[in-house]
Amino acid sequence: MALSSTTNLTPAMKQYVEIKxxxxxxxxxxxxxxxxxxFFEDAVKVAPVLxxxxxxxxxxxxxxxxxxxxxxxxxxxxxxxLIENGYKVAVCDQVEDPRKAxxxxxxxxxxxxxxxxxxDEENLRAGENNYLACLHEKNNLLGLAFLDVxxxxxxxxxxxxxxxxxxxxxxxxCKELVMAEGPSGNAMIKRLTVQWPxxxxxxxxxxxxxPEQARAVLEQKFPAxxxxxxxxxxxxxxxxxxxxxxxxxxxKIYPAHINEIRxxxxxxxxxxxxxxxxxxxxxxxxxxxxxxxxLFAMINxxxxxxxxxxxxxxxxYPLADTKKITARLAAVADIKENHLSRxxxxxxxxxxxxxxxxxxxxxxxxxxxxxxxxxKLSLIAVPxxxxxxxxxxAPSLLAxxxxxxxMPEVAGLIAAAIAEDPPPGxxxxxxxxxxxxxxxxxxxSISHDAKKWIASLEAGEREKTGINSLKIGFNSVFGxxxxxxxxxxxxxxxSYVRKQTLVNAERYINQELKEFEQTVLSxxxxxxxxxxxxxxxxxxxxxxxxxxxxxxxxxxxxxxSLTALAEVAEKNNYSCPxxxxxxxxxxxxGRHPVVELxxxxxxxxxxxxxxxxxxxxxxxxxxxxxAGKSTYIRQVALIVLMAQMGGFVPAAQAQIGIVDRIFxxxxxSDNLARGQSTFMVEMIEMADILRKATPRSLIILDEVGRGxxxxxGLSIAWAVAEYIHDFQGRGVRTLFATHxxxxxxxxxxxxxVKNYNIAVKEWGERIIFLRKIMEGGTSRSYGIExxxxxxxxxxxxxxxxxxxxxxxxxEFDEIGMPRIARGLNARKNNNPQLNLFVxxxxxxxxxxxxxxxxxxxPLDALNLLSELKKKL
Length: 872
Ligand code: ADP
Fold this sequence. Notes:
Strand order of the largest sheet: 13-23-24-25-21-26-27
Distance between the termini: 75 Å
Low-confidence stretches: 669-675, 812-816, 820-838
Shape: elongated
Bound molecules: adenosine-5'-diphosphate
Number of helices: 29
Number of strands: 27
Structural class: alpha/beta
Oligomer: single chain
């Protein structure tokens, strides 16, 4: 039913409709007494999501309205469920005391909760950011602004292509996006929704993104120094202005703790693109996308939520600056070596709550007494951290120590005002310490003394009436009463007024008790009001210290991350890598940090690595399936990554010449579904990698060429390897794992190629995996043996061996090249991607096409053949 078509509504429903019309894209939670009610389409839409019954107001009548609802005290859980299902929620509360209201109670939307703007602890993953982003296009540039409102982190970036933008957005895992209305954004939105079906996208009119308005807003909120570079980037400015406007629109308050604006990735980072992140399982496993089993889960020994967020950032954006990495490593080493300091640091770190989000909650006016208490407890640990750090020697640790601000006044203010174990809400009171406020104390003493007073009244009345069983009690509906059993009813004096009749007793009130009730109840109401007043004043006072709290939070986060890296290093027996600007990567006894832990029982076999831009540029790693090729090449990438994030590495020794980008490509056939040929996909991906690769990059290729037939696949793998080796005359450092042992022939013609194989031992017809990497190629793939181990039926294994023998006889020519691979190139010659690799062959083929055999002598033919062969 359309809202506007509803006539004859009750006043409450009229008010509902009026409010709902202002928030058409939100689910409106409409407070009625102790319930939040949902009506009309909202109710119909979400009742199944919330698993609550859909009924109707005025059931069966003409003007019946669909309705569902839930008690207000359970709101948090229902709101979470709505947000998780991609809804925006507008919370509409009663904003005046119903008892004092004339006519209908005034209601207002007090807050809008959206997937990108969540403030409750229970709805946020503690160690992760929750980003709201805004995207705007101007002059073919894409401006991105994103913020995590809870800790108040605000960043901006600009991209000149969709791919870079999408990669950045994938890394941020944005939950919600604001974009301009209009057809120009439609194509982008289509891409975004394909990639992230759960992303909530809000469209706003173009004027929402006006750069002039943005400029005004930004200048009002941020220091000039932060804004210096932004004016030349109108797309970025528009996005930044709009995202702030959206926050203000939904939160109804401008969050004072968002007081800093940073360019995203302005520092020199090691770029790990989205595919590499996934393939290396940095934050989630490939198999089931679970967080457990990822590298981050393994190294996350942080003790504070902001520490976890920072460590996550470090892993997602490792450094590419030798000096900075070395400084981090020195701090990690210092903490690792000083066992006692480390365990003490960890003890105090574990007492610190999410300072960043607490500061945010104070700024947004939603911090409750428990939050302030958590803030106090956190700040109390700061002086201890400071003095522990002073005992250490790494310069960056001493810098943290100096910068940490003890803020005794903040902890003092809270300690004086807030009771030890306060309730979370501020409405019920009971959280202000006695002795903090005289007025409150005297109000409290009235209510405290009530017990004594009642006892004496009770004794007096018993004596007066002679009824020994007379009792004075209280219940929330009838208030105070004097209870007399029915048997004694005759003794009740006339001054008692009957209030309630029970089965065996009567309840009364008299003048004296009535007056007392007035005083007590009004005292209690005054206590609540006074406590609230005091609390709000305290919160406002604490608000003045927000930037100091935020600074402390960042320092604690950094210390926590460094300590976590030290802890991981100690636990897993890692060593400190040497970082330099050479092009050599040398690893002795390297291990895969995650597989190593899983393989504890059998033991993980460590392996060495040497890569450089000379003779060890392209390592071809062969070995049968299951030998450990993927594990090996990933371990090299992970060791580089861990070293550059400033951590120790799973190796006996490592020397890392800084890498600027890590790329990975895993041969797979999943793109086939999209209708592109495997060859096309792999070539496009390779071209894309090499467009961005530099002589400082590292490429990890795993089974490229797999998802197709043997010869196609082998040809692809071969072409790719050659292409990388000679790319722009210098090539890129690459580890190439393949089960095409024919690739080892590349060494004959390419000076930067080294062959390695993962050793297996033959035992009769069986093989044993030794997991040891050795120089040289393998000649056999042992695929059939692997099939046998995997439990493929005997008959199949036998037949496979037969087929293999047949194939081996005719598969390759005398120089070890696959005969059909060349044919493939010729066949696909009209494919533009192929031109990247096969120009000479194209020429030969076209010459062949043009030959008129009938007019040639046998000698001519032989000469031509020899010429053509030379051209190859
Ligand atoms: P491939 O890529 O050659 O098919 P994988 O790298 O997937 O092989 O390795 C197969 C399994 O072997 C892994 O799941 C892992 O458990 C084990 N493995 C790999 N390398 C090692 C090693 N160095 N030491 C111990 N076990 C290993």
